[in-house]
Amino acid sequence: MGFNYDCGVGPQCSTTAQLALNWMLVPRPFVPIPSPSPSPPPQPRPATLYLQHKTLVLTTPGFTNIDFLEAIFKGYGSPYDIVRWDVHSVSPPKPDLNALLYNADGSARYSSIFMHPNLEAMSLMNITEINILWQFQIRFGVRTVKVGAGNPELGYDYSGTCGGGAEAMLFTADAPPGISGVNVAAAQPNYNGIWRCPGKPTANGCPLQSVVGANPYNPNASATLPVNCTPTPMIKNAAGYTLATLIKYQDGRESMGFMHECAAWSSTCLLLGHMALSWVNQGFTAGERANLISVQTDDFFLSTDQDDTGTQYRVSPYDLQRHLQWLSDLKSGAVAGITLAPNSDLRIDLPFNGNGILENSTKLTEITVDGESCTTFPDYVALGCNCWATGYQACPTTAPVFCQHCTKDWPKPLGTGTNKVTSLPNTGLWTPTNLNPDPLAAAVLANTGGITTGFHWCHHTFTHENLDNVTKYDADKQLSLNIRMAANLSLSGRDVFSHSCMVTPEISGLMNGDVLTALGNNGITCSTGDNTWRHLLNQNNPHQMLYTTLASSNFAGYAILPRWATEIYYNCSLQSQNLALYNGIYSSQLGISTFDQLLSREADRVSYNILALRKDPHMMHQANLRVEGGSRTDFTVGSSLLMKWMEAVLIRVTNLVTWPVRSLKLDDLMAAFKAREARDACQPSYRLEVDSATGAVQAVTVTSNGGACKAPFTVGSTVAVGLPASAKDGTDVTAAIYRVDLAAGASTRVVLSNAQTWVLPPLS
After folding, report:
1. H or E element at residue 443
2. How far apart are CA 84 and CA 62, in angstroms?
3. Which residues contact 535 (CB under 8 A, 6 or more apart)?
4. Is residue 379 part of a domain?
5. Scanning 124, 172, 398, 589, which has its CA 20 to 30 A from the CA of 621?
6. In this structure, what CATH number is given to the domain that contains residue 146?
7. Are residues 210 and 275 in the same domain?
8. How far apart are CA 421 and CA 740, in angstroms?
9. Percentage of the chain surpassing pLDDT 90?
10. What is the pLDDT confidence band of residue 10, given thresholds at 50, 70 and 90?
């Protein structure tokens, strides 16, 4: 009964009210609301469940904060798909969930699911879609990770204080490091810049708000869907409020939930991503990780002009022996505040210039080559050039030709230029007798204190000539002379020496086809770049090297290995010098900094890139090896700029993860990049076999979907893997890496035993 007019106090409305009351009191037969038809009983699981070991990322159109997840997946090389769920089914249309989750044979297309945001809430999925997703999770034991979920959806209230400032959090005893290597005992994730509203557990379960179809009386309306769950706090703040949790649902499903957003700029989000990936993959990670800190100190054997004194500094044998003792102390745990994981192995790489020995031997004469960059020429100032940093393409066509060609990325025409190496040394005089007057050469020849075998070595040209605009002849002589010096120092035959990858002076010559031809003729096929120059980076994949092209360099296929610049400067050997120069550069942005603040910022930067699983080495210079506060007769005291930088980085990194930390020589770094490139071209896929009665992971089938490669996976150290011993990399004693040798298009089934039990909820 209804009335199409308003009513108030008065006789007419009183009559209307009485009429309505009489109508409502008339007895009528009870009409029950029909109950929904019971769901058919679930099909029993087959004896063996097959799951494609791949991650499904469910998100929404235009949402970008899944970038931290992509950084983790790409770092490991773990297969994943991103599906953008448009609730309005416009762009892109919503997928058929059954077709998305199941293969035609009924096996699972995914073994784990990430959601960011939580699509189960916020009216993004209806009740039918949620049930399909949940039944898939139950049937195959697929765990989920929910990022940016509301507190009630995870079983918590909003009783904590919201904020986005700096605040260190603590992992609880229930936080599951698994094979992630996250140091839950020491790490204190810093949530600076991450908005969060921590809370306390409630007795309300994990209700999902605004679910279309959750109202049994109106299937087109939204309602709260009650969900029974047991939350277990995983990360808390100092006040005891929770920010991340593990959830066990009544139906047996399991989730990890974060009550905050995340993004790739945050090292905390990367750290949490490692833990989440290990947990959601239940102890079997497709891909691999490495903790690499490789430092090259360019210009070895040369002397370097100091920033503020007008003097030069050249490293001494004492400096080198002090560094070797320090590296040994790091490994043994004798350096305060640093405990390295077993199998850690740190070394320093010495890119050397052989002419420096001739300069310091009384029995030999160095050669003189004008090796400066074109920016030091008088014409650069006289002509008003300013294109060095902006690049060749951005340089105005009206600029003088010299200015257009004096850019870091100018592809010098082949066969042009003037030879600057106009005289050659008599290499027949490079005998031990004539080299020994140089103290450094003598120490290398005698391997004094293990100097020769305790460091890595690579080429840096003979005289340090800038190669951007030089001739093929000059480049050939710069390499062939340095190769001869390496042989005369007995370096070439040692396994610490790199023959194929080098550091060019001032990161030059990489756009010069004449230079690249000459380097190749001398066995050099790779050089380090500088990540501050965009044109020297692989923009498509930071885990791969960049290869030159005819367009970029008039030479195709030369490898440029990415390398980080540091805030330890080439012309500084003392802490005071380096800090003064740092403040001269940054004081307008940062104010006056202390050296500890400089080191802390560097530790932040480097640890972020380590968590992103970047392999790129770091640039320093020989003057940075100068030991301050030491004693020439005691190799156990004193510290250099490099040592202080490394210790700050190691303290930060080892507080975050328990991964072994290693340094690789340049040839081995190049090989690591090439192996990753082959793996990306191989596009390996992984299929797990799980015993449905016990949850035992029995085998994995690894398949090449492209070229040949060694396809890696990572498991706990107690897992028995049916592969030859040579396939195992046991550097990390808690998480072994196995690499499956695959021909193009081939598959290999690998038997597993004693793997982590796959959690299979009971079928209701």
Report:
1. helix 439-446
2. 8
3. 391, 408, 409, 552
4. no
5. 589
6. 3.40.50
7. yes
8. 49
9. 85
10. low
Domain ranges, residue 155: 53-281
Residue 27 is given by DSSP the state -
Distances in Å between the Cα of 71 and the Cα atoms of 267, 447, 544, 673 are: 11, 43, 14, 17
The predicted pLDDT at position 35 comes to 45
Go through 151-175 and write b for each residue having 16 or more CB atoms within 10 A of its CB, e for each that does not.
bbbbbbbeebeeeeeebebebbeeb
Mean pLDDT for the stretch of residues 144-154: 96
Q: How far apart are the first and last CA of the chain?
A: 44
Query: What's the sign of the alpha-carbon dihedral 521, 526, 530, 534?
Result: positive
pLDDT attached to residue 494: 97
Domain end call among 281, 301, 327: 281
DSSP secondary structure string for all residues of 69-118: HHHHHHHHT--EEEEE--TTS-SSPPP-HHHHHB-TTS-BS-SEEEESS-
Please, what sign has the CA dihedral across residues 635, 641, 647, 653? negative
> Total structural domains in the chain?
3
* Bond into 40 cis (ω within 30): no
Q: Is 213 left (phi over 0), alpha (psi -120 to 50) or beta?
A: left
Of the two residues 315 and 220, the one the predictor is more confident about is: 315
For residues 695 and 757, the answer to whether their CB atoms sit within 8 Å is: yes
The mean pLDDT of the chain is 93
Lowest-confidence range among 25-39, 111-125, 144-158, 748-762? 25-39
Q: What does the pLDDT look like over 190-213, one tens digit per residue?
A: 999 999 999 999 999 999 988 888
Of the candidates 95, 258, 134, 88, the residue with the CA atom closest to the CA atom of residue 189: 258
Among the candidates 244, 261, 281, a domain finishes at: 281
User: What number is the average pLDDT over the span 131-146?
Assistant: 97
Tokens representing 488 are 């005369």
- For 644-666, the pLDDT digits (tens) are 999 999 999 999 999 999 999 99
Q: Enter the tokens of residue 27.
A: 């007895």
| CATH code of the domain covering residue 620 | 3.20.20.370
**606 and 717 fall within a common domain:** no
Residue 292 has phi, psi (to 5 degrees) of -110, 125
Nearest to 257 by CA among 248, 265, 266: 248
How far apart, in whole angstroms, are the C-alpha atoms of residue 684 and residue 738?
A: 14
Regarding whether 213 and 319 lie in a shared domain, the answer is no
Strand partners of residue 345: 662
Report which of 146, 233, 237 is spatially closest to residue 190, judged by C-alpha positions: 237
Query: Within this chain, do residues 576 and 698 fall inside the same structural domain, yes or no?
Result: no
pLDDT for the residue 27: 56
pLDDT value, residue 735? 97
CA 566 to chain CA mean position, Å:
17
- Do 256 and 298 reside in the same domain of the chain? no
pLDDT of residue 584: 96
Residue 759 belongs to some domain of the structure:
no
pLDDT, tens digit, for every residue of 671-711? 999 999 999 999 999 999 999 999 999 999 999 999 999 99
Which tokens hold the place of 576? 């005071």
For 94-133, the pLDDT digits (tens) are: 899 999 999 999 999 999 999 999 999 878 899 999 999 9
Q: Are residues 639 and 688 in the same domain?
A: no
Q: 736 and 604 in one domain?
A: no
